[in-house]
Amino acid sequence: MRLAIDKSLAEVDAEAVRALKSLERDLSDELAGCLALVAVDPAVDIDDALDRGADFAGLLGRPEREITREEAQALLSGVVDRDLAYRARRLSPVSGARAAAAFLALFPGPDTRFFTNGELGLAHNLDKTGGWSPLTGATFDTGVVAIDGARLGVFWVEDEN
Asked: Distance between CA 79 and CA 48 in Å, rounded?
């Protein structure tokens, strides 16, 4: 996984940076994609913040579908546990539930908003394939973008068939 961390957060939010780096180390051998953490101006409109975060993470666009925290947890847990192309079990030393919880713990506030790129990740655990808007050059991609006002995080997974 690629790791992208806004340098301005390194000093003011060192604990979050350490947590994201630890998650990347745990997942880097199993997953392709990106983990990112970027500072955003709370006064900026949500669409502009999502554009900045997507650009910072190297996504080709921003996710449009807003989801709940519970949906974000289920989506991330599923895509860590099973690949997107065939739903084959990954051999990750980190369970999907643990990885999802670690990422979502960076955004504990009740005002945090979560976004994804369609139904692919949400339908994944139901053994279904939903439509999605690709945000990378990979055959399959999905993930979660979380924004809490001052920070934006990206947990994006890419798979090929």
From this structure: 27
